[in-house]
């Protein structure tokens, strides 16, 4: 786990260089379309998210950290970072603060979207394992596809259907090594895993309008602080502080800075550019990055089924891009 910060830093440098292109009015924007930017943001967000999941499991298992503590402190710290970053957008931040209706929308997003998503994910891991939790979380792809089709009153395109199927099968293969009957879940793991999938859909949909209007940094600053403070008031994490050494603190701050701040900026920018379904599908590279990180840091050997799963998940990206070209 000592090598994790270097992995986080490597991906963060690439992502920050991409984010540099996003500044409005610059000549560089003309060389990178919104659609291409959205694909890159969704993919990079998924990769770094996968790395943070490994760090989260490390804290939960090795240091016996509570999901309540990890979620509450993580969101509060990340919210403070977002708030500092949002000071560059004082006009947007000031307008949002003066409009109660806008604040309520972001409060709901922070509690029922961000907080519930992170809390349920860590509880799902604690009652099962990271692989199983990721499988259950991927159900949000199916939920999102159904919602988008209902909203637009159309049948899904063939490549959308195929992408959803491949993404789901790929994650299942990675988590079960192809032995589907061995995926045995406790009731608590199942409940928290399903809540994780539902909350993933909720925070994706709730983020669309606020992010388009105010930007992902301002929205996440308020949302993260709301969720973190709300959970901290309920749980009081200062009373259950785990004993962390240097490796533990590196993992924690890696989760906050890269696995939370950077990934949510990238993911929500992806939602803004290419829509919720495409972003959610591409972000399924998360289990791929988790698997690669486990191999590099822990010496994990991949089975044939896992390799097939990786290939299937990567294939969804190409299917989505191909569908975009066909439909325009």
Automatic annotation (TrEMBL):
Keywords for the protein's UniProt record, in alphabetical order: Cell membrane, Membrane, Transmembrane, Transmembrane helix
Membrane-spanning segments = 39-60, 66-85, 106-124, 130-149, 161-177, 189-206, 218-235, 247-267, 304-322
Q: Provide the protein name.
A: Putative membrane protein
Primary place of residence? membrane
- Residue ranges annotated for the EamA domain, each copy included: 37-175, 189-321
Which SUPFAM superfamilies does the record associate with it? Multidrug resistance efflux transporter EmrE (SSF103481)
Entry keyword Transmembrane helix:
yes
A Pfam match is EamA
Q: Name one GO cellular component term.
A: plasma membrane
What top-level branch of life does the organism fall under? Bacteria
Q: Which family does it belong to?
A: Belongs to the EamA transporter family.
Q: Does the keyword Transmembrane helix apply?
A: yes
In the bilayer, the protein is annotated as:
Multi-pass membrane protein
Compartments (UniProt record)? Cell membrane
């Amino acid at each position: 786990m000592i090598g994790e910060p270097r992995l986080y830093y490597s991906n963060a440098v690439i992502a920050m260089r991409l984010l540099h292109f996003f500044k409005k009015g610059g000549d560089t924007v003309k060389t990178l379309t919104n659609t291409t930017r959205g694909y890159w943001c969704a993919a990079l967000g998924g990769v770094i998210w996968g790395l943070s999941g490994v760090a989260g499991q490390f804290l939960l298992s090795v240091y016996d950290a509570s999901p309540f503590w990890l979620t509450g402190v993580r969101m509060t710290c990340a919210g403070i970072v977002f708030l500092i970053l949002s000071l560059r957008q004082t006009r947007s931040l000031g307008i949002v603060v003066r409009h109660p209706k806008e604040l309520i929308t972001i409060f709901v997003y922070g509690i029922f979207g961000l907080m519930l998503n992170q809390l349920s994910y860590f509880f799902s891991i604690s009652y099962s394992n990271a692989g199983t939790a990721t499988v259950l979380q991927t159900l949000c792809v199916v939920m999102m596809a159904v919602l988008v089709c209902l909203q637009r009153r159309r049948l899904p395109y063939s490549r959308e259907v195929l992408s959803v199927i491949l993404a789901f099968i790929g994650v299942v293969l990675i988590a079960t090594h192809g032995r589907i009957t061995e995926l045995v879940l406790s009731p608590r793991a199942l409940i928290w895993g399903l809540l994780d999938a539902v909350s993933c859909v909720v925070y994706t949909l709730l983020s669309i309008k606020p992010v388009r209007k105010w930007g992902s940094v301002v929205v996440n600053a308020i949302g993260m602080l709301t969720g973190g403070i709300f959970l901290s008031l309920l749980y009081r994490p200062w009373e259950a502080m785990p004993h962390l050494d240097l490796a533990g603190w590196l993992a924690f701050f890696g989760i906050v800075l890269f696995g939370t701040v950077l990934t949510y900026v990238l993911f929500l920018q992806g939602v803004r550019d290419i829509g919720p379904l495409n972003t959610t599908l591409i972000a399924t590279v998360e289990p791929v990055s988790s698997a690669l990180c486990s191999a590099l840091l822990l010496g994990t050997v991949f089975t044939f089924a896992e390799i097939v799963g990786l290939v299937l998940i990567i294939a969804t990206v190409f299917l989505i891009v191909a569908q975009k070209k066909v439909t325009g």
